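Sample intake sheet
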Amino acid sequence: MSARDKTAQQLWYVKNVQQQVFGPMTNEEVLAQIQRGFFLGQELIAAVQDGRWIPITQNPIFFDAIIAGLDEELRADHNDELQKRLAAEATYIDEDSKGLERPVPLWKTLKLETPAIAKPKSEIPQVPTLPTKPPEPVKENKSTSFFIFLVVLALVVVGVFTLLPDQQKSQRDRIRLKAVRIDKTEKAPLNTEEALKAAIVQFRQHTIGDYLKAQDLLVSILETNDGYLDAMGFLCMTYRELWPYAYQDSRDIQTIYGIFQKASLLKSSSASAGVCYAVYMLSVGEYEAAKNFMDDALRREPNLLFFNQLIGDLLEQQKKYSTALYYFQKVKELWPPPPWARSLLQEARTQRKLRRYADALETYRVTLTYYPNHPLALLEMGILEFEAYQQLEKANNLILKAFQSKSQFPAEITAEGYYVLAQINYQMNYKNKALEYANKAFSIDSGNTAVKEFILSIGGRSALERVEIDSSNMLYLGTQYMKLGNYFAAQAEFKLAFEADTRNALAAYHAGQALWALNQSTEAIKWVEKAIHADPGLVSAYVTLANYYSFRHNYEGAVQILKNVQRKFPANNEIYRGFADIEYQRGNRKAAIQFAHKALDLYAMDVGAMQIIAQSYLDMQDYDNANTFIARALEVDPHTPENHVIYSKVLVGRAGSGDAINYLNARIEEAPDVTAYRKGLADIFIIEQNWNGAQAILENLITVKKQDKASIMDLALVYKEEGYVNKALEMYLAAASLDPLDPTPLFQAGTLYFNAGNYKSALMQFERVRRINKNFPRVYYFIGKAAMETKDFPKAIEMATMEKQVNPHIAEPYLLAAEVYFKQGQYSLCASEYQKAIARRPQGAEIYINMARCYRLAGALDSAVQMLDQAAKRESGVAEIYKELGLTFHMQGLLPEAHTAYQRYINLAPNAPDRVEIETRMQELQ
C-alpha cells in the first residue's frame, strides 16, 4: 500500500467545543465537514490508533483546509455591508490630526441619536472620600425577569421611568437609570448628610423598589452638591443593582460613565472613583480588567467595602463558592448592623451551594430578623427547606409567599424557585402544575439541564419545544458563560438573545466579543456591526470595531469607523483614544501622541491615553517624557498591572535594567498570581538580550497557561536568537494553530525559513499569510523576495507591484523590483526603481552604489558617477564606492582616474575576494 493510500485511510475522532465526539472519520470526511463549515478550527482530533487529542489545526492538511474555508470570508472582509456604505462623495480632513496624511472616505452617516458627552467641570471643590479609584472597563452580570411586575411596582414606588414609546414589549418593561443633571436653576435646600443616610437605609434593604428610592435620593444630592464623592460611590453601586432591570443601552452606559468621570476628576484615588470605574467596566463586559483592578486595590487596602462585595459576586458567578463566602462575610463585618441584606443573602446562598445547610438556614433566619418578610430571603429559604430537608409544604409556602410579593429577583434564583415548585407538585402528583412551573423555570434559565430533563420526562419533546425562552434570560446566561471563559456557549446565548429582541444592542455586542475571543474575527465584526445598528449611540461598539479592523491591519477602515461616530460625538475621549490606538498600531507614534493628548484634553484622567503617550515616547527612546506620562497614569491608577509594566520599561532607559528588574520582582512578590508582571520581566530580559533569563520565565508561563499566544511568540523569538531554529519554528507553528486567523506566527515562520535559505518553505508560509489577511504588512514584499530567490522573476515583479499599491509610501517594494530587474539585466528599469526608493526613504551609501552599477551597465556613465559622489558624501569609507567608480572611469576612458579609484578600493579592502582581478585591471591600465 502506498503512503498516499495510508494517508487517505487514516481515521480520526473529532471533538468539538461542546465535547461532542464524531467519528471515526477519514481524512476526506473531516475535510468535507470543514468545507461545509461544520468544523471551524476550535476542535480537537485524535487518531483512532493512539487516541491522543491534539488541536485540529496542528494537522497541516486540516489547517490548510480551514484557512481555505475562511478565504472567501476573508477576501470579502473589507467589502461587507458596513464597508459598502462608504460615502464615495464625502471626504473629511481634520486639520488638527496631522497623523492622517490625506483625506479619508467616511462611512455613510448612521442615524445617531445619543447626545454628545458633556465635558465635566474641571474645578470642583475637594470633599472627603470613601476608598479607591479607576482604570479599565468590565461588565456586570445579573439578568432581568418579571418585567411586567417591575413596571407596576416602580410606577407606584417612584416615577423614574423614561420609556421609549416605539420599543418592543421587552424594552418597555425595563427601567432607565436616572442620570444626574446639573443646571443653573436654584435647587430646594437639601441636607445632604441626612439625605445620604436616608439613601443608605433604602440601599441596604436590597429590593428593587428600595434601590429606586435610593437612586432618587442620591441623584437629588448630586444635583445640589456635585462634589459629594460618597454619594457618587453609592449611586454607582445603586446603578449596578438596577443594571439587570435597566435598558442596558448606550444611554444607561453613559449615565454610569458620567458619574465615573466626575468622581475621578474630583479625586481619582478615592474609593468612590474606584467603585464607579469597576461598575462601569462590569457594565460593558470587561470582567478581567475589573477584577485585576479590584484585586490590586484590595491587596493594598483590604477593607474596601464595595470591592469585597464585587469580587465576591464575580467569584460566586464563577462557582468559586468557598472563596466568595470569605468576601461576603468580610462585607458583613465591615458594614455595622443593620448589615446590607445583599451580603447576608449571598453568605447564606454560598453556604447552601457548599451544602452547609445548617449554617445557611441560620444565616437566612438572621436576615429575616433584620428584614422581616424580605421576599428574596423567603424565596431562598424555601429552596433550602426543599433541597436540604425535603420540607415540601414549608418550602411551597415560603416560595409562593415570595412570588406573591411581586418583587423582582435574580434570574437564577427565580428559576430555582420555580423548579422547586415543579418538583414539589410532581411529588404531590400534580403533574400539570409541575409542568407549568418547570416551563417557567426553563424560560428563565434555559441552560439548566436538570429542568430540561424534568420537562422531557413529564411532557416529552413537544412540551419542551413549546416553552418560550425569555430573551433577557439568554443575555443573562451569555454573561455567565463569558465570566467562566466559555466563549462558545456565550456567543450562542447572545445571538439568541439578539434574535429574540433585535433592539438589544449589548447582546449583539457581547456576541461579537465572544466570537473574537474564539478567533472568529469575521463573524465578530458582523455582530459588532449589528450592535451599532441596534444602538447607534453605543460608542464602545465603534471603538471595538475599529480595534478589530486595526488587528486586521485595515487601518483606513478603522479610521473611517471612528470618523463616522466622531461627527455625532465630537467631544468623546474614547473616540480620540481609539484614533491614538490606531496610529500607534500602524507605527505612527507622533500622531498617536497627538490624538491621545486630545483624549486627555476632554478627560484629564484617561489612563488609556496616558499609556499610549508613554508607550509612544518609550518606543521613540524619549524616556523623560515617557516617565512623565506613565507616572501620571500610576498616580491616577496604581492598580492596573499594565501601568507598572510600562513604568519598568521606562526604568530600563532611565536607570538601567537592574532597577527595572528589582521593581518588577517586587510586584511579583506582592502579586504572584498576576502573570502580566512575569511577562513584563521577560520583555525586559529580551530588551537586554538576556535570552536565558527570558527563556526560563516564558517556558514557565507557557507551562501554567498553555494557550498564551503572546508568550509563545516571545519564546519563539528567544529560541531564534539562541540559534534553536527548530524550536523557534515549533513555537511559531504552535501559535498559528491556536489562532488560525492571526497570520503573524506564520509570517515569522516564513522569515525563519527565508533566513535559513529554505525559500520554497518560506514562500508557502508567506502565501498562507496572504490568504488569511491580504493587508498584512509587507507580505507581498516577502513573497516577492522568496520568489526572486527561487528565480521566479515575473512573480517577484508582480508582488513588488502589489506591495506598491498597498503601501505606496515605503521603499521596500521598489528596492525589490530594482534587484529583480538587475538580475534580469534590465538595468535602466533597475536604476529607475532605486531612484523611486530613495524618494521614499533616506538611504545610506549602498543604494547609491547599486543604482550607480545599474546606470553603468545601462551605459549612463555620467549618472553613475553622480550617484557614486552621493554615496561618498554619505559614507566615504565604503570600499565598494571606489571599485564601482574605477569600473565607471575605466568605461569612460579616464584611465588615471580609474587607477586611482582601484587603488583606493584595495587600500580600504586589502582582503577583498576580487583583489587579484582588480590588480590585473590596474596593471592593464599602466
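Comment: The longest helix spans residues 208-224. The longest strand covers residues 86-92.
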